[in-house]
């Protein structure tokens, strides 16, 4: 079952359970996907975005919520931070298992070896290969720092 089908099923279940908070989050996710679908339309293709693109979108949604949590906690608004954490938990339900730090380091080492990357100039090539293979399962913010460290940066 594709991610869109999983989302639709989850929306129906939330409606039946009368879980307004979950339903609101799921509808927000669907609206973001629809926006991306519309932005990606061309004269030749009316297809929606792929599951990989949806996973990348989920990563961006999670990142923005993590940023909001930091701001809310800094501003002394724990109830708003908790609401963001709840939304992140719902997003994680639809994402594949995330790679841990050792798995991420191993994946980076494999891609560096495959691409023959030797310096920071090759970082873009390594990151592109990682994004192609590990979209939705790797935190690219942390991975970028690890790639930089492995290629001789700070």
TrEMBL record:
The protein's matches in Pfam families, at most eight in alphabetical order, are given as:
YqeY
Where does the secretion signal sit in this chain? none
Q: Which regions form coiled coils? A: none
Q: Which Gene3D superfamilies match?
A: 1.10.10.410, Uncharacterised protein YqeY/AIM41 PF09424, N-terminal domain
The protein, known as: GatB/YqeY domain-containing protein
Give the lineage.
Bacteria, Pseudomonadati, Pseudomonadota, Alphaproteobacteria, Micropepsales
């Amino acid at each position: 079952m594709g991610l869109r089908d999983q989302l639709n099923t989850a929306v129906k279940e939330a409606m039946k359970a009368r879980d307004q908070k979950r339903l609101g989050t799921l509808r927000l996710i669907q609206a973001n996907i629809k926006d991306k679908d519309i932005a990606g339309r061309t004269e030749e293709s009316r297809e929606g975005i792929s599951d990989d693109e949806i996973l990348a979108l989920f990563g961006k949604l999670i990142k923005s919520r993590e940023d909001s949590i930091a701001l809310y906690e800094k501003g002394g608004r724990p109830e708003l931070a908790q609401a963001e954490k709840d939304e992140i938990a719902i997003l994680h339900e639809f994402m594949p298992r995330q790679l841990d730090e050792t798995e991420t380091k191993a994946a980076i080492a494999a891609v560096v070896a495959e691409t023959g990357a030797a310096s920071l100039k090759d970082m873009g090539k390594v990151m592109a290969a990682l994004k192609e293979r590990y979209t939705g399962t790797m935190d690219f913010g942390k991975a970028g720092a690890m790639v930089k460290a492995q290629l001789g940066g700070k």
